[in-house]
Design goal:
The chain has about 425 residues and is mainly β. Helix content is about 10%, strand content about 40%. About 15% of the residues have low confidence.
Length: about 425
């Protein structure tokens, strides 16, 4: 479906709006788009781009690969009479890449479509419409994204023009953004002191190279890209590590980057934990599994606890969770908007299970989200999930088949990965957005 039809489809849900009120012309490879003015001072806006409109992997497609042309009559007073609230509601229902193109129509639309009110409206309209996509990197120039609702792979190019940045690896994905680790320049430098992070939005093609990490902080450990619910146009990056000082005292150190302030801030507290891993963001807090050794009945035993970091108050806390399992491993995830604990095993015949935290009772309860009695059927796979889909994949990509569970319909199906030139960095979850960089 082309951009004009997308807009018309969005308009039909509002009373009194007519198809002939909006028009555009796309012809051949020129891809010229004309929109009617929405103010008396602006008679017509024109945008011209070359090449084809990139396919959408989000809610259908926005393809214009074949040559065609069409036009329809426009009411010259339509946009001047249309209330701004309704206009934003119409445009918020377009696919993300079509909204990015609408920003290029004219100066007024660009200013309108970057307002905080509009980005907030996108979040409220799309919160449950777009599934989390399974992605892997292709030569650091594109990502291959799998849409489970459409059951197809799509290629999304990352850059308009590649930055002067040597990428080492993809460290994290979140909030519609990708975070790469590397160094400035075109030559690879593995010295940790030269390590920088680059954040890019593949939809808008905008990117930012972040300031150097504070002294003593390495670009390792748990790292997450976070876009808070009440700040959809800003992002944060959080490194969580455990440091040991010369006196053998351990400290839990969280290093947070705020895109609004463009700076790193470090938060820390004393801890008895020896390691921290398997992080997930749920409803304003980061959650981790922490491991420590304690004395019990004259013996040293290993104990695991849940560790949280509140992204608003910047406070650490601990909580109890059933993290010990004799038959499998545990991993925190966000499923259906709730903190969940997935029990899994690398044994092919093992059937994974899900527990979710009940905030009212403060207990963990079994959640019947997976098909009963169905094993993975493959060995060595680990889970990756968020929203309404749970994936099991080989982290080393020696096997290219991914097992996917549709939690809403309680179905299990296989995803075939046939891309031999992808990076061996495992899979990430990606949710498209228009978050600014």
């Amino acid at each position: 479906m082309n951009l004009k039809n997308r807009l018309l489809s969005s308009c039909r849900s509002f009373k009194g709006m007519k198809e002939e009120g909006l028009g555009c012309v796309l012809s051949g490879s020129g891809r010229r788009v004309f929109f009617s003015s929405w103010s008396n001072s602006l008679s017509r806006c024109q945008s011209s781009t070359s090449g084809s409109i990139q396919s959408s992997v989000f809610e259908g497609s926005c393809e214009t690969n074949s040559d065609y042309s069409f036009s329809c009559k426009m009411d010259p007073e339509l946009w001047s009479k249309l209330p701004q609230k309704i206009l934003l509601d119409v445009l918020a229902r377009l696919p993300h890449n079509c909204i990015a193109r609408c920003r290029e129509v004219c100066k007024i639309w660009k200013e309108l479509l970057v307002m905080k009110h509009f980005t907030d409206r996108i979040v409220s309209v799309r919160k449950s419409h777009t599934p989390f996509l399974l992605v892997c990197v292709k030569r650091y120039q594109a990502i291959m994204a799998y849409n489970p609702s459409m059951k197809e792979w799509r290629e999304i190019f990352i850059w308009k023009k590649s930055p002067n940045f040597q990428i080492h690896c993809l460290r994290a994905a979140g909030g519609g953004l990708l975070c790469f680790k590397g160094n400035l320049g075109k030559r690879k430098n593995v010295e940790d002191g030269d390590t920088r992070l680059l954040v890019v939005n593949p939809i808008t093609k905008l990117w930012r190279i972040l300031p150097s990490l504070p002294p003593g902080i390495r670009a390792s450990g748990c790292v997450n890209v976070i876009v808070l619910e009440n700040e959809p146009n800003q992002f944060k990056i959080l490194f969580m590590q455990i440091h040991r000082d010369p006196h053998a005292q351990r400290r839990l150190v969280g290093t947070l980057y705020d895109s609004a302030a463009d700076m790193w801030i470090t938060y820390c507290e004393d801890t008895t934990l020896e390691s921290i891993y398997r992080s997930v963001y749920v409803n304003g807090s980061m959650h981790y599994i922490g491991s420590e050794r304690v004395h019990e009945n004259g013996a040293i035993v290993s104990r695991r606890q849940g560790v949280s970091f509140d992204m608003y108050s910047k406070v650490f806390s601990r909580f109890e969770a059933p993290l010990i399992s004799e038959v499998g491993a545990k991993k925190f995830m966000e499923l259906h908007g709730r903190l969940s604990l997935v029990t899994f095993s690398t044994v092919a015949t093992f059937s994974p299970s899900v527990q979710q935290f009940d905030e009212q009772t403060g207990t963990w309860v079994d959640a019947q989200l997976l098909p009963a009695g169905v094993g993975l059927g493959v060995q060595g796979y680990v889970p990756l999930g968020q929203g309404s889909y749970l994936y099991f994949a080989d982290p080393h990509r020696q096997s290219k088949t991914v097992v996917c569970y549709d939690l809403l319909n309680r179905q299990r199906f296989l995803i075939e990965d046939a891309f031999p030139d992808l990076r061996f960095e495992g899979y990430k979850l990606y949710h498209p957005s228009l978050c600014s960089v």
